[in-house]
Each structure stands twice: as C-alpha cells, then as structure tokens.
C-alpha cells in the first residue's frame, strides 16, 4: 500500500492541488449554506451565528414578490424548453438535408458566431435591433411590411420581455446547440436509409423512423439537463437585459438573490433563496432522470 | 433517382430558411460595425443599413482617448492570459492523474468533483468565502475561483485515456517517472485537446462580466465586459464622452453621441473574438465531439 502510493507519488501530486481547490471553492461554500438557517453575523462567522431554523425560507415564501418571482422563473424556463429546446434539433435536421457541402459549412460557421460573444454583447446588439429610436431595424421592417403602424417600444413594455428573452436565447444558442445533434446524425448508418428507400419510404418517413430515433438518446440526455435548469431561467441573459420598466416580468430567483444578497447584503435570506432553488433544481433533474428510466431509456445517472 | 416536386419545394424552403437564419445573425453584427463608423449625430436620423453614410473614426478616438477602456483592455488581457495558462496547466495535470485506472482513490476524487456539477453552495456563500480569502477587489478573483472546471477535466481525461498506452509503458521501462512521461510524452501528443480547452477557457475569461460586477468595486480593475455593460446601461457612456472629449479637440467629438459610443465600445469588445473566430470554431467543434463520445 505504502509502496503503491510512493510509486505513484507524481500522479498524486498532480491531483492534489485540484482536490484542495474543489474543497475550498466548491465544498466550503456548501458548508456556508448553513447561514440559510442562521442569523448570519459577519463578525461571528458561520459557526457562531445564532440558529433561526426555517425563518428565512418562510420569509421568502411570504414575501410579496414570491409568487411573481416564481411565475417569471418557471414561465421563462418553460417557454425556453417548449420553443427553444427543439430549435437546434430542427436546425440540425434541416442542415442534414443539405447536400451542398460548402453551403452547409458556411451556414454552420455563421450560426455559431453569437455563441462566442457574451450576453452583454448580445444585449447590446438586441437593444439596437429593437430600438424605439429612428432606424430601429425591427420596427422599420415591421412597418414596411405593414404589420405595425408605428414603432413599438419593445424593451419598455413588460408584455414583450419574455418573448425577447426566448427569441434572443434561440438566436444565441441555436447554431451551437445543433452541433451535438449533427454529430449524432453523422453516426447513423447510411444503410438504414438505403434499405428504407427499397421499402418505399419517403423523406418524411425516413426522418420519423430513422433520423429521429437515431438521435433520441442525445435528445433525452440534453432534455434531462434542461429540466434540471428550470429554476435557473438564464441569469446572465436576464440580468443584462432587464430594466426598471419591465421588472414585473423580469425578476427571477437568481436576480433576486443577486439584489438581496450582494447589493443589500442580506446574506442569510439570499442564501436561503439560493438553496431553495438548487434543491428544487436537483429534484427536478433526478425526477426527470427517473422518469426517463421508467420509459426504458438511458438516463444520465 | 427521380426528384419529386415535393422534394424540390422542400429543398427550396430549406435553403430559404437557412439563408434567412444566417442573415438574421450576420446582419445585426454588421450593422453595429457600420453604425460605429458613422457620424453619431447623422446616425440619429436613421436609415443606415448596409454602409456608413458619413464615415468617421471619431467614435473610436473618443473611447480610446480616455484611460477607462485601455485599462479595461489591460485587465481583460492579463486575466485571460494568466487565467488560461494556470487553468489549462492545473486541469490537465489533474485529468492525467485521474485517467490512470490503477491509481488508488481515483474514484473517490471522480465522485467528489462530479457532485459539484449537480449541487453547489451558490452565490452568497461563494461571495463570503472570497471575502474571507481577501480575494475581493483583486485581479486574482478573476483567476483563482475559475481554475478548475469539471467539464473540461472530463474532456482532458477522455482524451488522455484514448492515447495508446504502449508509448508510456515503453518510457516507463526505460526508467522514466510519471513527471517525465507526462511532460515529455503525453503533453506533446495532446496538443489538439490543449488548444481546444485553452480556447474554451480563454473565451470564458474574455466574456466574463459577472465577476467584474459582483466581486470588484475598484475602477481600475473593471474588465472590458463589465465596462461594456455599464456603457450599454447608459451609466457610463456620458462620462466616457466627457472623459474622451477632455483629451481631444472639440471639432472631432462634437458629433459623438452616447449611442455611437455604445456601438464603438461593442465593436472594440467583440473584435478580438471575431478575429480568432476561424480557429475558435474549428477547435470548439472538435472539443464538443470529444465530449459527446463519452459525455
């Protein structure tokens, strides 16, 4: 045993800094979650702050904003799941039908571009696209085709906010999201298609009976992760896109944690809200995983 | 094989949709660049789409005339270079250790890092930790807390496991230890995965606005993305014009508007990423493929 450790001493040395880092930057904060159940006092520290039980959780559930925050978070996530999740699958299927290879490569290369810029940049670009000022592209376009009579103040009306979030999320992620499906598609055996042609199957039937089943396991795995993300809704995006006029539809759990915890220094309540979020998120992930297994598919765990 | 009318129609719609998608992505980027090169006051009249109407570089002279953006560039470049180097160095070492099936205790570490993918302490406990470690308001807050990432470790580990074992074994027989094997044989053979992950990490550093907003107050440590966010949210564009104007003749800055400053700052932020884009997309796609084999 001792000799074994000594023989592999360099390998252990390689791993050691990582173990320390994970203990400090991932596990210490888990221990710090205790302050969700305590009246955190910065001088006393985590251990010596007095216990308050579930007080902060109850405060949050009774908070006048609670319902609103939950509705926004879940609604944005569900819209993203229903509309945003199939989008890259559709793009991959469309690209898969293209025979001209150069065209296919150009479309792919272009479609990844927004993935490599930050949400701040995307927000800047979308503010400009949707601007109410002279020359806003979306307003000019919609007016020229006669869909609207006068410019719409897209970012100033809270009714549009969820849709802006969903559409810009697709715009940023669709190309990148399609890569993994394209990889799965390229793994489907060509002979299956040839055989189906013999049997008289047309393109639709091939897509339904060969292509989609061929990428089913990829779809399922990504779906489980998306389900686990329902409580997240996309903090980066929403934080950089929200403004005071749309707050009624734009406050989600994570932005609330940021405002209460960081800007107002209410550490205990913000920690409680964050913990509430991660537990539900983990629960959703495990539940979806179990459900998927119930239907005889491979889960992630 | 005969092509039916339905297939022709489908092909037509398909090409149409994909072209529309490409334009909807490229045009907004192009237009930002066009607006940043157009006279600010003139742009307010609208009607600029494909090409600048009144070409000028004064938007750029204004933003680069004051120290705010050059400082932000410096901070961003430093954190990206040092952060990427440290991150790739430490992650690859750890992944190499974890790729050795004979290593005792390796499963314990694997499980320990996998758990963090599904559960964590969240923002506030991390913030308080960084505070206790005196990392707030320091350049290291951009680097140290993001050194390791489970996903990237898995990518490295998968790659190392796919290397032929014979090379390492023959070196071991010649009396080389793990240190030599790793640095002399394994690392040089693994350049593709190093390139891929370096780019992943570097883009992450370049695009991070969050740490600059939350963990740092001091003005001279603000990274580019955080500065851009302040400019876009209009807190800072007026002060940037004023700051830039003080250093330039009024002739050149007269027509600069807060909107044209935003466009120029946006372009200045994106430009390095766009220049690296051909490499980025090539290696990124490879990285995703490696991941999807075992993900």
Automatic annotation (TrEMBL), chain A:
- Which SUPFAM superfamilies does the entry mention? MetI-like
Residue ranges constituting the ABC transmembrane type-1 domain according to the UniProt record: 70-288
What does the UniProt keyword field contain? Membrane, Transmembrane, Transmembrane helix, Transport
Which Gene3D superfamilies would you find in this protein's record?
MetI-like
Membrane topology term reads:
Multi-pass membrane protein
Transmembrane segment boundaries? 12-30, 69-94, 106-127, 160-188, 208-231, 267-287
Q: Does this UniProt record's set of keywords contain Ribosomal protein? A: no
Q: Which Pfam families match?
A: BPD_transp_1
Question: What family is it from?
Answer: Belongs to the binding-protein-dependent transport system permease family.
Q: What is this protein called?
A: ABC transporter permease subunit
* Organism of origin: Cohnella silvisoli
From TrEMBL, chain B:
Its annotated compartments are: Cell membrane
Principal place where this protein is found? membrane
Transmembrane feature ranges: 12-30, 77-96, 108-127, 139-160, 181-203, 263-280
**Domain ABC transmembrane type-1 intervals:** 73-275
Topology of the protein relative to the lipid bilayer: Multi-pass membrane protein
InterPro entries attached to this UniProt entry:
MetI-like, MetI-like_sf
Q: Which UniProt keywords apply?
A: Cell membrane, Membrane, Transmembrane, Transmembrane helix, Transport
Q: Which family does it belong to?
A: Belongs to the binding-protein-dependent transport system permease family.
| Name of this chain's protein | Carbohydrate ABC transporter permease
Name its species.
Cohnella silvisoli
């Amino acid at each position: 045993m001792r000799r074994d450790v000594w023989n592999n001493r360099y390998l252990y040395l390689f791993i050691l800094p990582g173990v320390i880092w994970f203990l400090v930057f991932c596990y210490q904060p888990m221990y710090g979650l205790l302050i969700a159940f305590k009246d955190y006092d910065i001088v006393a520290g985590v251990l010596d702050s007095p216990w308050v039980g579930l007080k902060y959780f109850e405060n949050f559930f009774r908070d006048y904003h609670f319902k609103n925050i939950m509705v926004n978070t879940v609604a944005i996530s569900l819209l993203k799941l229903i509309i945003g999740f199939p989008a890259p699958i559709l793009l991959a299927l469309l690209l898969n039908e293209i025979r001209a290879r150069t065209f296919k490569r150009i479309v792919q290369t272009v479609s990844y571009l927004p993935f490599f810029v930050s949400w701040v940049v995307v927000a800047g670009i979308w503010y400009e696209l949707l601007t109410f000022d002279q020359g806003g592209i979306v307003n000019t376009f919609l007016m020229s085709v006669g869909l609207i009579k006068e410019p719409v103040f897209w970012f100033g009306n809270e009714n549009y906010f969820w849709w802006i979030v969903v559409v810009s999320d697709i715009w940023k992620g669709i190309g990148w999201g399609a890569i993994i499906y394209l990889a799965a598609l390229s793994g489907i055996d060509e002979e299956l298609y040839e055989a189906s042609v013999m049997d008289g199957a047309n393109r639709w039937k091939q897509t339904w009976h060969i292509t989609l089943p061929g990428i089913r396991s990829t779809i399922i795995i990504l779906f489980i992760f998306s389900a686990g993300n329902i409580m997240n809704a996309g903090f980066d995006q929403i934080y950089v896109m929200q403004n005071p006029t749309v707050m009624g539809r734009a406050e989600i759990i994570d932005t609330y944690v940021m405002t209460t915890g960081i800007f107002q220094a209410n550490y205990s309540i913000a920690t409680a809200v964050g913990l509430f979020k991660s537990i539900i998120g983990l629960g959703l992930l495990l539940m979806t995983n179990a459900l998927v297994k119930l239907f005889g598919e491979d889960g992630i765990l | 094989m005969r092509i039916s009318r339905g297939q022709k129609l489908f092909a037509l719609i398909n090409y149409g949709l994909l072209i529309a998608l490409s334009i909807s992505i490229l045009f907004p980027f192009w237009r930002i660049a066009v607006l940043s090169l157009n006279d600010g006051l003139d742009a307010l009249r609208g009607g600029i789409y494909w090409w600048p109407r009144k070409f000028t570089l004064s938007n750029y002279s204004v933003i680069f005339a004051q120290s705010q953006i050059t400082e932000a560039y410096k901070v961003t470049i430093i954190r990206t270079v040092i952060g990427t180097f440290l991150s790739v160095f430490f992650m690859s070492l750890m992944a190499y250790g974890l790729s050795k099936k004979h290593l005792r205790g390796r499963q314990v570490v694997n499980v320990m890092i996998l758990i963090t993918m599904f559960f964590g302490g969240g923002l506030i406990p991390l913030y308080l930790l960084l505070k206790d470690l005196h990392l707030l308001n320091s350049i290291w807050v951009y680097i140290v807390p993001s050194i390791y990432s489970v996903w990237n470790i898995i990518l490295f580990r998968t790659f190392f496991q796919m290397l032929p074992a014979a090379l390492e074994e023959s070196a071991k027989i010649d009396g080389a230890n793990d240190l030599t094997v790793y640095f002399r044989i394994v690392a040089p053979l693994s350049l593709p995965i190093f390139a891929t992950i370096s780019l992943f990490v570097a883009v992450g550093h370049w695009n991070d606005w969050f740490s600059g907003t939350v963990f740092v107050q001091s003005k001279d440590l603000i990274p580019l993305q955080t500065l851009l966010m302040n400019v876009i949210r209009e807190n800072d564009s007026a002060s940037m014009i004023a700051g830039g104007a003080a250093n330039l003749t009024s002739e050149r800055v007269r027509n600069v508007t807060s909107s044209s400053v935003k466009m120029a700052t946006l372009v200045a932020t994106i430009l390095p990423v766009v220049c690296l884009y051909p490499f980025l997309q090539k290696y990124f796609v490879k990285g995703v493929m490696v991941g999807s084999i075992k993900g």
